[in-house]
Amino acid sequence: MRFALALKSDALALDFPTNSLPNRAVAAYLGMAIGDALGATVEFLTPREIVAQYGEHRDIVGGGWLRLRKGRVTDDTEMSLALGRSILSSGGVNADAAAEAFSAWMRTKPVDIGNTVRRGIRHYRQTGEPEVPLHEYDAGNGACMRTLPIALYTLGADVATIAAAHRAQAYVTHHNLVSDAGTLAVIQMVQVGLRGGTWQELRDLTKALVAADERYAFDRRRMENPSGYIVDTLHAVFQALFATDSFETALIDVVNRGGDADTTGAILGMIAGAFYGLEAIPKRWLAALEKDTALECQEQALALIAAAPY
Questions:
Q1: Which end of the chain is flanked by fewer CB atoms within 10 Å, N or C?
Q2: 3-state DSSP assignment of residue 238
């Protein structure tokens, strides 16, 4: 696939044809960053605390426990961009390149970093091995939150190839079969959106995930205050996605559940961005996102689909 990069030095170029792959790829990346920035404000709050402080949290305002600037993103977006750079610079998905990129990112003293991620990067630095051992307690959402570059770069590949690419980056920090299953489903859901697929295809992927692992089963009982456990995270994401009918309502729904809201926002943002497209993203959210972050998201989205070999 070859597309001319539409990046401009000082502004986003958002005039991609409706329903085109560049449109949906850029929407997925910007959607992830917006979900991250929106959710970070209310991360670790309960729904009741969110209501008390914000009523309904609808705007990117910064703050939160990290005291972020308005429009600032967290590790979800930063690690995704680091992974994307490693894919583009090394010519493919490479565990060593991903591990080195994550290590370089950690040296920047990021505003937020998970314990499992920190431990995995330290393991790489100490041993030179870009893979942590299989661990039953590493079923966090840290590999899933940064998986968008894999979804973009492996578009058109078979499931085995996609799964191998996922493992190459995930196992730097998260080596867990439950996490693998949930993350692969998210990658496939993003790719349904990128291809202009249907609502039913998204539902079928969640049904297949539940059939393979009943822990992922979800119903109408609202998952509130979701933890960083991948199952809790995806319960909230799937419920919000299927209970709403737009990018905006889905993101507002999921971040107002509180808990690990920057990550539920980021994961839902990448799926819903790909599915609904750029036109569905509120202009007030695009305007609030830090310019440098928004520009790099657009540039990387276009570069990854252009480089995809499948």
A1: C
A2: helix
